[in-house]
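User: structure tokens for this one?
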Amino acid sequence: MNISVIKFLLSAIIVFGVLFCVPCRDTACAQQKQTLILNSSFRTTLTSPDKTGFLDLIYKELAKRMGIEIIIQYLPSERAIKNADRGIEDGDICRIYAINAKGEYPNLVRVPEKIMQFQMMIFTNKSDVVVNEPKDLQPYDVGIVTGWKIVERNTTLAYSVVSVEKGEQLFAMLGKKRIDIAIIERMIGMKLMKDSGVKNVRMLSTPFLSGYWYPYLNKKHEALIPKFAEAIKAIKEDGTYERIQTEVLTRYAL
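Assistant:
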């Protein structure tokens, strides 16, 4: 074999190797997991920066079962739902059943399986507060989190309503007696009350509002909804959901 033939063969081997070592950038030739970015307006017990909150762990399990990747990011509540509706992100981890009752978010589609039961509780610095329904808020200065729609819709009869972006602000205001009542989800509120160190604040025993939250996806991901619902059903039926809930409640001593 002469030198020219050897050089030709070596060149061919090098070119062949380079071609097959170049990473495939075409999704048609590289199996990649679908990734959803879902918004959350919650902190502490439900979603947390270290991804150990209740819904962090629930969605981690759902993602594994669906064979996709789910990234949960924090945004203030109003911005979170508007971004999801506009398709800037892919959805919202949980909202009430009738979030779109007035047609504000036409591009959001509800996953028809409950992700969590919520209880909106009243935390107060007064000893004589009794609230059984929205009209009982009339004498009180009330604090709520901006964008929590069901709370916004049920506090219009209060003497005054202060809307803030973070639950921590509510407990600071309770401690300084700038508001009489704060309304927030039970698990979040109990943790914030514990962490804030405010004195003479208590939680009323009866929920002000209760119901269920559902995941919502932007309509561009509508085809994924049946699979999503099936995964939620499965983790409830096999005990995974209850196990995660107990783990989180125990960890936060709630």
